[in-house]
Design goal:
By secondary structure, this protein is α/β, with parallel strands linked by helices. It contains nine helices and twelve strands. Bound molecules: calcium ion.
Length: about 250
């Protein structure tokens, strides 16, 4: 109660993509929706839940890049959830930003001691919260947040929506662009066709796994000229991996 809701940032560039995954754990729907709206407009992939129990299940299913965690939740408190996540090896370093209504110094210190990476006091300003989240993510997942992704002689500029290889500009359709971006975000990691479908087309898209192969083919064709090295490796029965061996 008594929390000021700030007007959403009316900014939807549609160009800048940022695929960091965010989980919002907040029982106040108005705040949760405000956050979802603004972070989705910035290109984040957002999921939300209202309790610590749900949050634990969701994190176990798909680990987000960052959690925005409300301090006061029904049953399991934000502090308690934070403590539980910190005690498990797989979520020990998961970035957590705590939302708190309490401005007391002692509580802030307690929050940070429990392992939150940062905290923001309610009522908060959306731009400030956004800036804090991005700052944490730039440290935690630099590849997801970088404006320009580089691998060998290939460069992908998210803001300018431009891809170059050496001095040559490469023109890609929107799907190939997103596919390359997704591959470049996880260099050296084998990505299954299902992961690529979820990451590029979205988990609710009705797309056949063969579609992935078709677009990988188109992407390769656009990227490779003459004797240039193929930056995408096919891993039989597993999927695709991006990364030039000598870079
Ligand atoms: Ca709350």
């Amino acid at each position: 109660m008594g929390e000021t809701i700030h007007a959403p940032l009316a900014k939807k560039t549609g160009l800048q993509t940022m695929t960091a995954k965010l989980l919002i754990v907040e029982d106040e729907q108005a705040i949760s929706e405000l956050l979802r709206y603004n972070f989705e407009a910035e290109g984040f992939k957002v999921s939300a839940c209202e309790s610590g129990e749900e949050a634990e299940i969701m994190v176990a299913e798909e680990t987000p890049d960052l959690i925005i965690l409300d301090w006061s939740l029904p049953s399991v408190s934000g502090i308690e959830l934070c403590r539980r996540l910190r005690s498990k090896p797989e979520t020990r370093n998961l970035p957590i930003l705590m939302l708190t209504a309490r401005g007391e110094e002692a509580d802030r210190i307690r929050g940070l001691n429990t392992g939150a990476d940062d905290y923001v006091t309610k009522p908060f300003s959306v731009p400030e919260l956004m800036a804090r989240v991005k700052a944490i993510l730039r440290r935690a997942v630099p590849d997801r947040m970088a404006e320009v992704l580089r691998a060998g002689d290939i460069e992908l500029d998210r803001a300018a929506h431009k891809v170059t290889r050496g001095l040559r500009e490469i023109h890609l359709g929107p799907t190939e662009f997103r596919l390359l971006e997704y591959l470049m975000e996880s260099p050296g990691r084998v990505l299954s066709r299902t992961q690529l479908l979820d990451g590029v087309w979205g988990s609710d898209a009705f797309v056949d796994e063969r579609t992935v192969d078709v677009h990988i083919g188109r992407l390769r064709k656009a990227l490779i000229r003459g004797k240039e090295r193929d930056p995408i490796r096919t891993v039989r029965g597993a999927g695709y991996v991006f990364g030039e061996r000598n870079s």
